[in-house]
Design a protein that fits this description.
By secondary structure, this protein is mainly alpha-helical. The chain has one domain: Ferritin, CATH 1.20.1260.140. It contains 5 helices and no strands. Helix 3 packs antiparallel against helix 4. The chain starts with 20 loop residues before the first helix and ends with a helix. One of its GO terms (molecular function) is 3-demethoxyubiquinol 3-hydroxylase activity. One of its GO terms (cellular component) is mitochondrial inner membrane. This is COQ7 protein. InterPro entries: Ferritin-like_SF, Ubq_synth_Coq7.
């Protein structure tokens, strides 16, 4: 290498100095598992309803969930967080929940979406409060991500209601 140049590629890791690692690890691990499960739910719904009139709506929500999962995959590397050992369970359970609710028809799938997205939104709100209590400036990037994803989940909740979830 040239004088002083390093062959080591650029790192995608963040500085871990001063963060509450157990809190951040728990948040990222849980959110990754949740987004993974949501992806599997939408995959199950699409397997049943993909060619129906509601298919494009489900696909749109699934695309956002795919983006969420991609981001949490990146955060797991950046913050050096291991995934939950329950991922194989989420893989099967999420798909079964999605397909099972879709087998009940559009209303069943949308009722599932509303229930799951409401729960996830509440969960994100709790995490936002935790990070703000810790130090809003220190966790600014993570807070922005979680707030955006919470807003997306609220949008999915509302879409479900607009499509006869009740």
């Amino acid at each position: 290498p040239a004088a002083g140049a390093s062959l080591r590629p650029c790192s995608t890791r963040v500085a871990l100095d001063g963060i509450n690692k157990p809190v951040v690890d728990r948040i990222i691990r849980v959110d990754h598992a949740g987004e993974y499960g949501a992806n599997r739910i939408y995959a199950g719904q699409m397997a049943v309803l993909g060619r129906s009139a509601v298919g494009p709506v489900v696909q749109q929500m699934w695309n956002q969930e795919k983006d969420h999962l991609k981001k949490f995959n990146e955060l797991m590397v950046a913050y050096r967080v291991r995934p939950t050992v329950l991922l194989p369970f989420w893989n099967v359970a999420g798909f079964v929940l999605g397909a099972g609710s879709a087998l009940l028809g559009k209303k069943g799938a949308m009722a599932c979406t509303v229930a799951v997205e409401e729960s996830i939104s509440d969960h994100y709100n709790s995490q936002i409060r935790t990070l703000i209590e810790e130090d809003p400036e220190k966790y600014k990037e993570l807070l922005q991500i979680i707030k955006q994803f919470r807003d997306d989940e609220r949008e999915h909740h509302d879409i479900g209601l607009e499509h006869d979830a009740e």
